[in-house]
């Protein structure tokens, strides 16, 4: 598409951050892959479902922190987070993880933790998730009006992933606060300061687990590293960081976004209350309709590549919009309609290919248990404020600042 190649990049600004879906619809109608500027960086945004699936498995698109850092350094005002790893432990932690790597390094790292996220392992966690959900709802019963994010959607996945990994209960709230602050940090200096603090904490926690191993994921990763020499110390810290943050933030916002969608569509909420067999499909529609991760992580082209007929030159950033792909009318009929009876299979909320989120079964399980328990416990749940007051303005993750509701 010569027109798209020659077109000046479109700057995605505040309107995109507030609500990306109208922007996606306008760009997607024009082209499957658009030239844009996001966060100050020019890049190619993949918008249509078929093009997104192809891009997520395209070997000429690389997850390469060093190459991304060099490219970012060319653009004015962009701080290359992936620049020399020796700058700080936090910077290393932010880039040396599976989401930012290609095979064979990605394959080696993923293999180490994949066994903790099998369907059997997630099923075994179900009683513990149900217990945590019940305890959290016991705490809010009778309060009338609560912030559902603060008292429920955030504490649930933080508790579950922390227990899996081995973060002591006394430290979980602090780690959750760091994770939240890191997600909304705007200035690179602030991001690196928070990341350095998290890296320091995780380094100490790993040392403690090495001295006194337990039945948790950190101890298992240490054993694999020390016995088989598979993980460097930096890789170990980055692996734990990724699992904690990815297993916490995205699931919390999946639950929050899903509940908001139900509360904004009373007919769908009533249908789910009347027929709980719709719950599993409702969670898939949560993922498709308003997923917490609507943009994939950055890739960079190693050579010219054609995506859905659009030629992308070498040394260019490419980012796949999972949210735009999930609202593609060529794949989902009437995609702006929230419908828990929809056959939402095939959505890309958890990615596709080798970087497909291995924590997807855990996120689905927590969302299903959480929403089902909320509806069982409270016959009436109503929004306490206007929906437009709830959104937070963050590029990568899509979530809420709060979710005040009245319970009855």
Can you describe what's shown?
- By secondary structure, the protein is an alpha+beta fold.
- The chain is 54% helix and 10% strand.
- The protein is built from 18 helices and eleven strands.
- It has a six-stranded mixed beta sheet with strand order 1-2-3-9-6-4. The protein has a three-stranded antiparallel beta sheet with strand order 5-11-10. A two-stranded antiparallel ribbon has the order 7-8.
- The chain is globular and about 60 Å long.
- Residues 80-85 have low confidence and may be disordered.
Number of strands: 11
Q: What is the SS-derived class?
A: alpha+beta
Note the run of SSEs as H and E: HEHHEEHEHHHHEHHHHHHHHEEEEHHEE
Low-confidence sequence ranges: 80-85
User: Could you tell me how far the N terminus lies from the C terminus, measured between alpha carbons in angstroms?
Assistant: 56 Å
Beta strand %: 5-15%
> Which geometry do the CA atoms define?
globular
What fraction, in percent, of the residue positions are helical?
Answer: 40-55%
Overall mean confidence score, pLDDT = 88
- Main β-sheet description: 6 strands, mixed
Strand arrangement, major sheet: 1-2-3-9-6-4
Q: Write down the Rg.
A: 21 Å
The tally of helices reads 18
Keywords: Heme, Iron, Metal-binding, Monooxygenase, Oxidoreductase
Pfam families: p450
Protein name: Cytochrome P450
Organism: Streptomyces rhizosphaericus
């Amino acid at each position: 598409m010569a027109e798209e190649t020659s077109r000046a990049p479109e700057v995605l600004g505040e309107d995109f951050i507030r609500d990306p879906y109208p922007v996606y619809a306008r760009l997607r109608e024009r082209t499957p892959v658009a030239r844009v500027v996001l966060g100050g960086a020019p890049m190619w945004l993949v918008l249509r479902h078929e093009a997104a699936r192809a891009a997520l498995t395209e070997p000429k698109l690389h997850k390469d922190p060093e190459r991304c850092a060099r490219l970012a350094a060319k653009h004015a005002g962009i701080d290359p987070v992936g620049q020399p790893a020796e700058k700080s432990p936090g910077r290393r932690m932010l880039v040396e993880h599976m989401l930012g790597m290609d095979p064979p390094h990605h394959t080696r790292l993923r293999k180490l933790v994949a066994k903790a996220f099998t369907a059997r392992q997630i099923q075994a966690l179900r009683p513990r998730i149900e217990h945590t959900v019940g305890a959290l709802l016991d705490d809010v019963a009778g309060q009338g009006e609560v912030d559902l994010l603060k008292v429920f959607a955030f504490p649930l996945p933080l508790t579950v992933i922390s227990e899996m990994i081995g973060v002591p209960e006394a430290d979980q709230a602090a780690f959750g606060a760091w994770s939240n602050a890191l997600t909304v940090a705007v200035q690179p200096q602030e991001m690196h300061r928070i990341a350095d603090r998290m890296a320091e904490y995780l380094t100490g926690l790993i040392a403690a687990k090495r001295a006194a191993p337990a039945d948790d994921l950190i101890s298992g990763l240490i054993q694999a590293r020390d016995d088989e020499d598979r993980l460097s110390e930096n890789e170990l810290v980055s692996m734990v960081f990724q699992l904690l943050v990815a297993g916490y933030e995205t699931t919390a916002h999946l639950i929050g976004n899903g509940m908001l969608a139900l509360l904004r569509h009373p007919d769908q909420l009533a249908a789910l209350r009347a027929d709980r067999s719709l719950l599993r499909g409702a969670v898939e529609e949560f993922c498709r309709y308003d997923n917490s991760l609507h943009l994939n992580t950055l890739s960079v082209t190693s050579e010219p590549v054609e995506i859905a007929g659009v030629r992308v030159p070498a040394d260019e950033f490419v980012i796949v919009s999972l949210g735009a792909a999930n609202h593609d009318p060529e794949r989902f009929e009437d995609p702006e309609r929230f419908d828990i009876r929809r056959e939402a299979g095939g959505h890309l909320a958890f990615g596709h290919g080798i970087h497909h989120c291995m924590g997807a079964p855990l996120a689905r399980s927590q969302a299903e248990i959480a929403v089902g328990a909320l509806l069982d416990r409270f016959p009436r749940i109503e929004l306490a404020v206007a929906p437009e007051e709830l959104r937070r303005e963050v590029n990568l993750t899509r979530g809420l600042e709060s979710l005040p509701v009245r319970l009855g």
